[in-house]
Amino acid sequence: MRAFLVVLLLLPLALPNCRGPEAPSVEPLRRFYGAGSATVAEGVAQPAPGRPHGRYFGITLAGGMAERMEQSFQTLHLPASNCAYLFYRQLSPRHRATHAFVRITLKGKTTSSQFEFPLAHLARVERSEALLKRALPLLQAGDYDALLAKGNPWGGSVAAWQRAKPRFRQLDSDYGRVCSFSLQGFAYLTPTLGGRTRPLIRLAGVLVRAKRNHQFAWVVDPNAAPQSPYLYGFNFRMEPDLR
User: Fold this and answer.
1) Cα dihedral sign for 14, 17, 18, 23?
2) pTM over 0.85
């Protein structure tokens, strides 16, 4: 089904070493993606144009875990970003202060893909998720007047946001009430709005409903004030995958 209310049209040289005893665990990735090989190591990346550098955590996923991602996604950036974020969320303040980025390597049967995520960007995702959690209960309760009031005026007028209410109500009727949102990955957006470039985060995942799940994405301003957690937009599709 056509996406609805889309507001925004939107390897450096490394010196790896073995994982130390205090290194974080990859268990959150195993719990999310199931059986497969997942290992973590630490390294230091030298400066290179367009690449993050400094100390990093290197996560390598292989076997069934990586192969399932290859089968389920047309682009692996989405699951790789989720892996980086799942790993980041458990990092201690010390690790966040001493490391610059997370490197994700996905090794399938015949291919290998690598992605790098600066910790500063992952921190923005964490702030965006916190704002999302303030809006999700409104979606669960079907309080669309309050939910759509959070639509950022930069993204559309109050009247434009309110026109989304019939669509949300139709989904409630067809697919059942909203139970939860399962984050599957994210992307950084840097649109120019009002003559200014604004860093936004697209949080893509699955809206879990009582009858049938579907894709759902939130576009969030990670710098919005907590007392005024504007959301930029919504984007939902009925297809069962995230391609």
Assistant:
1) negative
2) no
